[in-house]
Amino acid sequence: MAWMAWTWPTGIFIALIILAIAVLTVMDVRSPPIMRKGFLPIPTDRGDRFYIAMLGLLAINLTWWGVTDASPLIGLTLSLLWFGVAMRWG
After folding, report:
1. What pLDDT digit, counting tens, does each position of 10-64 carry?
2. Which is it for the CA torsion 28, 31, 32, 38, positive or negative?
3. CA nearest to 21, candidates 51, 52, 62
């Protein structure tokens, strides 16, 4: 990882995103996604919800870090809750 000057947490984060995309690909091959409408204002499938959830996760974390001096674990917890809700009911 030294050739890109990444830190280990950054490398692990990118690896987890790649793993999540690989899992979504395998899930799509095994059972094609079905469009459905949840609380999001548009019909979505698994991939759409994953993308929207990742954008929300990023926004919540960056907002938490920028607005408050409280523990980053609280922001991480809130963003993971959002991710779970968006993937399940979004």
Report:
1. 778 888 889 999 999 999 999 988 899 989 889 999 889 999 999 999 899 889 8
2. negative
3. 51
Looking at residue 13, its amino acid is F
Helices (H) and strands (E) in the chain, counts: 3, 0
Q: What amino acid occupies position 32? A: P
Strand segments, DSSP code E, in 1-90 are none
Q: How far apart are CA 11 and CA 55, in angstroms?
A: 19
65/63 Cα distance (integer angstroms) = 5
Structure tokens at 26: 């395998």
